[in-house]
Structures are given as structure tokens and as C-alpha cells.
Design a protein that fits this description.
Largest interface: A-B, 54 and 53 residues
Mean pLDDT of chain A: 96
Strand order of the largest sheet of chain A: 6-5-4-7-10-14-15
Oligomer: homodimer
């Protein structure tokens, strides 16, 4: 195992602080439900599946503190609005609050197992010898282990395929530069970092054989939300006839959502864009808009790679409902 | 006059050092042809039309130093490969090297006049009350005065239209955040800064009425090179039925180039991507690819706004050849 985003030990949730990567590997030890909520809000842990697992442990910590199930749920639910997995985890924990410790471990194992299976199922869709582009970090850091988008890449490389990865730096938070490049380097997978603006250039030149990303929330019609910029990559991949894969566990599917139109899009502070390493990149009073996610319509998706199978957008509803 | 990128006085070329904006307004005083070449290479001055004017003055300085016309041309031509205006300026100066000082002033006035006219002609294509998205900096800083893409915006606002501008930050060099936001603030034009990744999001939501960019080189079939990321914005605008305008003087058109396929694309140092304010955004040894421009095929262009008229891509060849 190369990378693990979090684990539970001695009644504490241990989190790799992703804000400080790649410069330092710092671990936070969290004792309370509110500490976990704050860590999610501040993006010490991020990535939909990892947020879900952190929230499950946060719920269990809350129960141990003597909070009610409703309090645990409400504290953790009010952190970040877009990722479906957060709410999937909280619903699971709420249903199983009488055995919260065991339920959190169970949810954790379910997510890790789903990611492992996504890797196995997705690897065959990776080119035998070619280049895959990914946006943001949908690696082990985003999912606890293996990753979603990175799982098929890892599995394909482990089984002998020759993959090169183009890593979008992923402004504003630089998940690609800080996290994906760090993960791929640790595993010895060949990669190059590019600015987000260069993704289309390489697609047009025929240098990209497939695009693979994770997801934060998937609607029943196959529309999905993911890190800001995903929509542009999907449109440009489509325009160039490049397969576009979305890798996600079924906990990311929102069974209550017909289309992507009503997915809540988190707007984060403008300072995330305007300030880098403590210094502004723009004039002092420049107003900023900072949507953290965008919605990609189903028509741009070649297939969803889930732990229950690789399916077209039309088939995603059936997978969730076990059909 | 709000902003001027450069001027000639007392036998020196005075340049606003664009690398240090928006934090400090520093002016460089250049005495020699080689100093001007270095300033172009290092991007103290950038933007195709402004590079052309700087090169014209650099040529005149070289002649005054006693260099041959060939030496002046070769020193300045080997700085940056993509912008056509650099070579347009050098060809003009070479033809007029016997009266270099006067020719440089003439070239300068020609560019400023073209930008003023681009503003007048382009303003009517701006919405009466709406939002325009721009990429990179094609303002006064890129063109000496007025700008190319920003000229119609300036002129439209001056004539009473209510425009809001969405400014792509434009990684890696952050021309949008550092330069365009600075110019628009000085002129009191309403704007918001966004990450490049968010451009498509706002286009899809119907919040963008037009996209307008500059150009570094235009082929006779209407393909054009511009700052990396332009291609993605053009594809996504096209997909959403949003008009996409390219504003450029005819000095940017390469009469020797049938299509955009053979436009030379400058690859700049990876450190421009990997290092921000002196600190790396990725692991120490992450390999980087940093293409500085991309090529957008003609089919994505609604119209070229030139000083000789607003024309479709099919008509650009006729404009250049005076038909």
C-alpha cells in the first residue's frame, strides 16, 4: 500500500493533512465529531469517498461523546454541500447509530472494496500503451485507498500496461499538482504535470487516448458533478472523439436526483483563487468568483466505472437500484 | 489614457515591467537591441502587438549602435517564436532600415491606430447589457494602448453599454489575474476573476453572452494561435452557442501560412508552471510540460475584429490582401 488518506486507531481518526502536501506529510489526530467536521470543511480531507469515510468516523466519535444521532448527522452534514458520499455515509450511520463504531468500519471497508473493484473493472478500458489525462485528485487521497479515477490506472500499470498520465494541475486548489503528482510519483507511474489550459491542446493534437475523472455526485440520468473544470475537459474530449470515463463508487449516486440541474454547487472563498503561498496573484480589491464544482451532462460520458460494473449513463439508474 | 505598456524617449525604450504587475509598477529603460531582445524573451513585455512595437524600437536602437540590419533582425527574431507581429515588425523595419527611428515610430502609430479602430468596430458586437469572458491579457499592456480584445470592451463601456467581464486568471503566467484585472480596475470596468476551469461552467449556465480574445498568429484559413487555453474556451463557447470573437490587427495575420497546423508553438520552462512566488506547487522532481500557446481551428471563430473590418474566418485572407 502506497498511500492512505486516513485510518481509525485508539479511538481517534488519523488524517493525512492534504493541505500541506506535497511539502510535508503531517497527520492530524481527531477526537471529536466537531473536529472531523472542521477538517472536512477546511479540506484537510477532501474527495467525495474520503469525505464519506471521515464523516462515518466523525459520527462514531460523536456517538461516543454522547451526542444524539441527529446532532452527529447535522454537525457533519453542514460542512460541504456537493459530494453525495458525505450524505450516503451519514444516512448509513444514522440507520446504524446503535452500533456506530462497527458501522463506520463497515462503511470504510465498503468504500475501499468498491475502489479496489473499480480498479479491476476499469483497467481493461485503459490503453495498452498510451496516455490518459486526469483532472483533480481522484486517487487514494480522495478515497482512503486505491482511488477512483487512479484505481484503473494503478491496476492497469500493475498488470503490465504502459500508461503515461497527463495531470491537470487543477486550479484553484491544485489537487493535481499537489496530490495526484505526489501519488503517481510514489507509485512510479510515468506522468507529466500541465496547466488545466493545456488539456485541450494535447487532446486536439491526438496525444490523449482517454480521460478519466472521479465524481462528487451523480444524478440518475447520468449527469454528474465533479471538480471545477471537469465540464470543459468532457466537452473537449467529446469534440475530439476521446473516451471520457467517470470512476465512482455507487455511494456517489444520488438516488433522489433525476438530473444534474439541482446539484448544489459549493462556492468557496475568493481567497482560494486570489492568494497563493500567502501572496495575491491579482490586485488588492479584485472581486473573485470561486465555484468549486461544475456539472457535466450525461451526453459527454462514455461510461461510468463503478464497483457494480462499467455502464453507460443510461444504465446508471439500474445499477443503483440493483437492476 | 489609462495604461501604456511602452514608449520611446531620449533614445531609450521605456517598458513597464509586466512581470512585476500588479504589485509594483516598475519601468525599465533599455538602450540596446540586445536588451530589448532579452526583455521580450523574459516577458517583461508580452502580447503579440506590443512585442512587435518593442522589436521595432529594438531594431532602431540596434541601428544606432552600429549593428547591421541583418544583425538587428536576427537578434530580435530569436526571442519568441509564436507571435506573428514580431516578424511583421522586423520585416517592416528591415525594409525601412535606412530610416529606422522614423520607421519604428511609424510602426508604433500603426499598431495603436489599429487597436483604436478595433475598439470602434468591435464595440457594436458587445452586448448592450451583459457579460463578456476574456482569456489572457489582450489589453493595453499587450498592445501598447487600447488593447485588442479589451478595446471593444473599453469602447462599448465608454459609449454607455453595461458590460461585466469574466477574467480567466490564465495559468501559468496569470496574465488575466495580474494584468487584465489590473487594467479593468484602473478603468472602472466591472469584472470578476475566475480560474480558467470555471469559464466553461459559466458558459453552460448561460451567464456568458460573448467571448473575446486576442491572437498571436492567424493563418489564411482563419485558424489562429493564442495563449494556451484559448482552444478549450472556443470549443466550449461553440458547444453553447456563444459568439467567439478574435480581435487582432492585420499585422497578426501570417500571409505565408495556409492553415494553423504549422504555427510554431513555444514550449516555455516547466518552472513557470511548477513554481509560484518562489515555491513549488508540486513535488520536487515532477516533470512538467508547458506549451505557451494553442491553435484554435477557424470553425470555432464567429468573427475576426480587425482594423480593416469585422470578418468571418473565410474572409480573413481577403482583408489581408486588400480585397
Amino acid at each position: 500500500m502506497g498511500v492512505r488518506a486516513l485510518w481509525y486507531e485508539n479511538g481517534q481518526l488519523v488524517l493525512l493533512d492534504q493541505r500541506r502536501l506535497p511539502h510535508t506529510e503531517t497527520y492530524m489526530r481527531l477526537d471529536t465529531c466537531r473536529e472531523v467536521a472542521q477538517a472536512i470543511k477546511d479540506m484537510a480531507v477532501r474527495g467525495a469517498p474520503a469525505i464519506g469515510v471521515a464523516a462515518a468516523y466523525g459520527f462514531a466519535l460523536g456517538m461516543a461523546e454522547g451526542l444524539t444521532p441527529e446532532e452527529c448527522r447535522d454537525v457533519l452534514a453542514s460542512t460541504r454541500p456537493t459530494a453525495r458520499d458525505l450524505f450516503s455515509a451519514l444516512e448509513f450511520m444514522y440507520r446504524n447509530s446503535s452500533r456506530a463504531d462497527e458501522a463506520a468500519r463497515q462503511y470504510h471497508e465498503m468504500v475501499v472494496g468498491a475502489c479496489r473493484r473499480i480498479g479491476e473493472l476499469g483497467a481493461e478500458y485503459m490503453p495498452d500503451d498510451g496516455c490518459v489525462l486526469t483532472h483533480c485528485n481522484a486517487g487514494a487521497l480522495a478515497t482512503v485507498e486505491y482511488g477512483t479515477a487512479l484505481a484503473p490506472i494503478r491496476h492497469a500499470v500493475a498488470s503490465g500496461k504502459r500508461l503515461r498520465v497527463l495531470v491537470d494541475e487543477t486550479r484553484p486548489w491544485l489537487q493535481g499538482a499537489r496530490l495526484t503528482a505526489w501519488e503517481l510519483a510514489r507509485e512510479g507511474i510515468e506522468h507529466h504535470l500541465i496547466v488545466d489550459n493545456a488539456a485541450g491542446h494535447y487532446m486536439r493534437l491526438g496525444e490523449v487516448d482517454a480521460v478519466i475523472v472521479g465524481a462528487d455526485r451523480i444524478a440518475l440520468n447520468g449527469d454528474f458533478a465533479n471538480k471545477i473544470g471537469t465540464y470543459e475537459k468532457a466537452v473537449v474530449a467529446h469534440e475530439n472523439g476521446i473516451p471520457f470515463y467517470v470512476a465512482a463508487p455507487t455511494t456517489t449516486v444520488d438516488a433522489g436526483l433525476e438530473t444534474g440541474d439541482s446539484i448544489p454547487i459549493e462556492e468557496r472563498p475568493g481567497s482560494e483563487v486570489a492568494v497563493l503561498w500567502g501572496r495575491r496573484i491579482c490586485p488588492e480589491d479584485t472581486p473573485v468568483r470561486n465555484p468549486s464544482f461544475d456539472v457535466t451532462p450525461a451526453k459527454y460520458v462514455t461510461a461510468f466505472i463503478t464497483e457494480k460494473g462499467v455502464v453507460t449513463p443510461r444504465e446508471i439508474e439500474g445499477v443503483v437500484h440493483g437492476r
